[in-house]
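quick q for whoever's on today - can somebody do inverse folding on this one?? i tried earlier but teh output was garbage lol. tokens:
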């Protein structure tokens, strides 16, 4: 079998072309949790930075929420569902054990020609999907790939356990990846795993409730995300100062803060979206990207650093230039 070859001179530069996000309507504030658990708003905010999270209602599907996020990304990019060659959804909480989310989401979108697949790399899943999308486009095997992170963590949370009940939320975020202006595009990624610590963060198949040794996970999250970011910057020949905006997996504002401080990144260049979403695992990075775009923190050509860490342990870090397309206005500086 011969792989399709594209002369390197003609190789497309994979770029994020559009972003979309969707949160469930049901809002769960800290005050609501305080009313039924032995916790306080002060503890939750001081230890995690979280003020509110969203939960799907029992009758709502994650597929519908995810389709809204994907439609938003297509709209933002000015592309049609029929142009999507692949839909990659990172999730650990599909509506059913099988089939995965991707076929139902593609059908809702009308992405009739798309290859559809779910991937599971816990909180790092979105970055795995983004790397795979970049490779598909670079190699000429695909032209447009929707990459999505979608979670309904409320469905695998022990709502009576104050140590975890306050931490998790539901949501979906998506980006459309396609050919962009020659230049940085989506750079090389770094990945890592440590199976020796799998028992510090997991949910079993029969007892579907997230269990976490919080402090241990915390320490490793800070160390691995700092190292992975340093490695990915070195691999791409980029300095910390050259990165316009950093999005780390939104598990805890203190973790994000510690990673930024270790890297020497000023906090105004860092996403703290966890405040409004809580920890949404694979959805956290695209949700944070959508929030940054909404808040005017990203411009065409902005260089975005992303890093994630989660159950496995698995981690990933990557760099992407934001909506750097030939049709977009270029930055004046
Ligand atoms: O997404 C995948 C990656 N996940 C993460 O990166 C999460 C990593 N871990 C964390 O973010 C933090 O460890 C937590 C937010 C989970 C916990 O914060 P902590 O500062 O590490 O607290 P702790 O677990 O050491 O608990 C401190 C105290 C304990 O009481 P004692 O033993 O000191 O009396 C807990 O029982 O806080 C207590 N506690 C709470 N108190 C009020 C735990 N949960 C709560 C709560 N409200 N909700």
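ok took a stab at it. sequence:
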């Amino acid at each position: 079998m011969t792989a399709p070859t594209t002369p390197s001179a003609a190789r497309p530069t994979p770029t994020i072309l559009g972003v979309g996000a969707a949160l469930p309507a049901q809002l769960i504030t800290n005050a609501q949790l305080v009313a039924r658990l032995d916790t306080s708003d002060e503890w939750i905010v001081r230890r995690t930075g979280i003020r509110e999270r969203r939960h799907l209602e029992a009758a709502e599907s994650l597929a519908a929420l995810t389709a809204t996020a994907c439609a938003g990304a297509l709209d933002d990019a000015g592309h049609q569902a029929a142009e999507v060659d692949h839909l990659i959804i990172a999730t650990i909480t599909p509506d059913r054990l099988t089939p995965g989310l991707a076929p139902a989401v593609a059908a809702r979108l009308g992405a009739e020609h798309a290859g559809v697949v779910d991937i599971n790399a816990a909180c790092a899943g979105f970055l795995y999907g983004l790397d795979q999308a970049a490779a598909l486009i670079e190699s000429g095997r695909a032209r447009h790939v929707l990459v999505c992170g979608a979670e309904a963590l409320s469905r695998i949370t022990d709502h009576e356990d104050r140590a975890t009940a306050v931490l998790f939320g539901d949501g979906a975020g998506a980006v459309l990846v396609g050919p962009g202006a020659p230049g940085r595009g989506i750079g090389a990624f770094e990945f890592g795993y440590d199976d020796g610590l799998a028992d510090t963060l997991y949910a079993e198949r029969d007892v579907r409730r997230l269990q976490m040794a919080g402090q241990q996970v915390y320490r490793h999250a800070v160390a691995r995300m700092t190292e992975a970011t340093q490695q990915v910057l070195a691999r791409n020949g980029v300095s910390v100062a050259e990165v316009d905006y950093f999005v780390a997996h939104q598990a805890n504002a203190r973790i994000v803060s510690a990673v930024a401080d270790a890297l020497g990144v000023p906090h105004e260049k860092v996403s703290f979206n966890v405040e409004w979403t809580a920890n949404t695992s694979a959805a956290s990075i695209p949700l944070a990207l959508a929030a940054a775009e909404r808040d005017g923190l990203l411009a065409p050509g902005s260089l975005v650093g992303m890093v994630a860490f989660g159950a496995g342990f698995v981690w990933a870090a990557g760099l992407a230039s934001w909506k750097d397309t030939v049709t977009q206005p270029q930055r004046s500086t």
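fwiw The mean pLDDT is 95. also The first strand starts at residue 13 and ends at 22. so keep that in mind when u check it
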